[in-house]
Amino acid sequence: MTYIQDFINLFFPNICNICGRQLFRHEILICNVCKDELPYTNFHKYATNPVDMTFWGRVELNKATSYLFYTKGEIVKRILHSIKYRGNKTLAMEMGRLFGINIKEEKIFKDIDFIIPVPLHPKKLKQRGYNQSELIANGLAKSIETKVIPDLLIKTTNTNTQTKKNRYERWENSENIYTLYNNIMLKNKNILIVDDVLTTGATLEACCQAFNEAQVKSINVATLAFAPA
């Protein structure tokens, strides 16, 4: 089987999704050189971190973390652009899987009952064809061995893009736009809300507020990237 794969690779080489270099047999989607260059935050190892502090005084969270730092023009931007705008679903799941490997030894993440991805509005989902946060969540769930529930949190209002908005505009754009489909199954559960990028935290704050009546045991947040506003 290995010889057949090597023959196929002569004509259809597996290349790194970031730098375009041909991958070695043991490499998956991203070469080891690019992995070594990724700007890991390691926020999950600290009692408090900048992601936690983003939500202080806004919503009550058990733990919040991000996998990578986001800097415009850098490697993480290329990853997120490929996932979000070029339909690279396998890269989204692989980044989620690597994220999960990174955090799975922390007790907080061993106790997660459900992962809930930040949803897209149905109109946006139909237009894009997939929810990148759900794909990241699926990869993460494989590593920390838990379940993803993609249809529990619903986006009821189709808001405009957050990209060029300031902190207040992002909060205003995200206020009261998420609702829960089922509260009962979340009672006394540890949940992890997953998104692709954290900037001001307005989207995730709005998501967390939707759980106010659900009687969950704890709310945790994880994003693939952290881009301070």
Describe this structure in words.
- The protein is an alpha/beta fold.
- It is 38% helix and 16% strand.
- It has 10 helices and 7 strands.
- The strands form 2 sheets. The protein has a 5-stranded parallel sheet with strand order 1-7-6-2-3, with helices on both faces.
- Helix 10 (202-209) links the parallel strand 6 and strand 7 (218-226).
- Helix 9 (167-174) runs parallel beside helix 10.
- It is globular and about 50 Å long.
- The N and C termini lie far apart (49 Å).
- Residues 3-12 have low confidence and may be disordered.
Structural topology:
Layout (H helix, E strand, L loop, with lengths): L1 H10 L20 H6 L12 H5 L8 E7 L5 H11 L3 H15 L3 H4 L3 E4 L4 H7 L3 H13 L2 E2 L4 E3 L11 H8 L3 E3 L9 E9 L3 H8 L8 E9 L3
Parallel strand pairs: 1-7, 2-3, 2-6, 6-7
Antiparallel strand pairs: 4-5
Helix pairs in contact: 4-5, 5-8, 9-10
Give keywords.
229 residues, globular, alpha/beta, 10 helices, disordered N terminus, two-stranded antiparallel sheet
Number of helix segments? 10
- Main sheet properties: 5 strands, parallel
Distance between the termini: 49 Å
Q: Report the mean per-residue pLDDT as an integer.
A: 88
What is the global morphology? globular
Number of strands: 7
Relative strand content:
15-25%
Radius of gyration: 18 Å
Structural class: alpha/beta
Q: N-to-C SSE series?
A: HHHEHHHEHHEEHEEHE
Low-confidence stretches: 3-12
Major β-sheet strand ordering: 1-7-6-2-3
Helix content: 25-40%
